Amino acid sequence: MTVYLNGQFMPIEEARIPVLDRGFIFGDGVYEVIPVYSRRAFRLPEHLRRLQHSLDGIRLENPYGDSDWARYINELIARNPGEDQYLYLHITRGVARRDHAFPRPPVTPTVFMMSNPLITPSAELLQSGVGAITSQDNRWLRCDIKAIALLPNVLLRQAAVDAGCAETILIRDDAFMTEGAASNIFVVKNETLIAPPKDHLMLPGITYDVILEIAAANGIRHEVRKVSRDEVFSADELLLTSSTKEVLAITRLDGKPVGDGKPGRMFDKLYKLYQDFKRDVMRQQSPPYTGG
Ligand code: PDD
Predict the structure, then answer these.
(1) Cα–Cα distance, 156 to 198 (Å, whole number)
(2) Atom 5, ligand 1: which residue's CA is nearest?
(3) What would the CATH number be for the domain defined by 2-117?
(4) Which residues lie across from 257 on neighbouring strands?
(5) Which backbone phi and psi does 150 adopt, to 5 degrees?
(6) Which atom number of ligand 1 is nearest to the Cα of residue 146?
(7) pTM, rounded to two decimals
(8) According to CATH, where is 3.30.470.10 located in the chain?
(9) Which of 260, 228, 230 is nearest to 129 (CA)?
(10) Which atom of ligand 1 is nearest to the CA of 206?
């Protein structure tokens, strides 16, 4: 496995960072996860735009322009095996003596990237759907920033695993649903797909956008609006989306079946359309994005 660290490609075993890196000390950094289909980074301009939004959110200057990012990313893909990969990009505020305030003058940010094989959900999982639990959304008020400080998400996701489930659906202020611990969540009611609006309380998912675009292009009724806690519990279907899981049905919630307990019609439709989109659009982008 070849990784990228601060301008160089190297085997992962050789990648080292100093212990005073502010990512290690404070969780002071942001990240991105980008799926790669047929060796093409999917929606790279959109992922780079979200990365810029995260960097702006933590007041860290982007170390590279889009064409540099594209060059390093395309090289990382070429240096790793597999047609389908997922990329992890990680930028921290760099290495400095420990002090909460930003280093003055600024130090060079740390940039790390790695690639892993993209393993999408198995046929069994697609057929059965997955279980989820609900929990209070106890994160901060800037969940639109893809921050590497993921301790709340880690604990929330572990609570799902401890309950034999795949995801935790987060309820803010005991009133409305925001997203999952590591995914976006859609509710289906009366054949309408309902998505919470992108705001500071959720990560603006790239897969979320794809699903809404697919719904619009195929005449699927959809609404973007606040989703109440009660609507989650009375949903006909629940869906989760992310770059690595694509789209999955949630068929059990807090131990009770969602709808009839099987992946529903909306899931079947969106899953098929997503696979068509992958084949016809995601795999056909050429040439790769170069930032121009
Ligand atoms: N997580 N919300 C949260 C909190 C997430 O962590 C993710 C993705 C999403 C979905 O975003 P996208 O469709 O752009 O992947 C929503 C990634 C996969 C991760 O942290 O590994």
Answers:
(1) 21
(2) 182
(3) 3.30.470.10
(4) 252
(5) -110, 20
(6) 6
(7) 0.97
(8) 2-117
(9) 260
(10) 14
Residue of 148, 30, 42 whose CA lies nearest to 85 = 42
Q: Is 31 in the pocket of ligand 1 (CB under 6 A)?
A: no
Domain 123-279, CATH: 3.20.10.10
Q: 286 burial class (0-12, 13-18, 19+ CB within 10 angstroms)?
A: exposed
**Which residues are catalytic, by number?**
146
The length of the chain, given as a count of residues = 292
CA distances from 285 to 43, 67, 70, 269, 280 (A): 10, 17, 14, 24, 9
pLDDT per residue, tens digit, the chain (292 aa), is: 999 999 999 999 999 999 999 999 999 999 999 999 999 999 999 999 999 999 999 999 999 999 999 999 999 999 999 999 999 999 999 999 999 999 999 999 999 999 999 999 999 999 999 999 999 999 999 999 999 999 999 999 999 999 999 999 999 999 999 999 999 999 999 999 999 999 999 999 999 999 999 999 999 999 999 999 999 999 999 999 999 999 999 999 999 999 999 999 999 999 999 999 999 988 887 677 888 7
Domain with CATH 3.20.10.10 in the chain: 123-279
The answer to whether 69 and 21 are in contact (CB under 8 A) is no
Contacts of residue 275, defined as CB under 8 A and 6 or more positions apart, other chains included, come to: none
CA of 104 to the centre of ligand 1 (A): 32
Cα 87 to Cα 30, 92, 112, 211, 243: the distances in Å are 14, 17, 11, 21, 10
- Which pair of tokens denotes residue 114? 């790695």
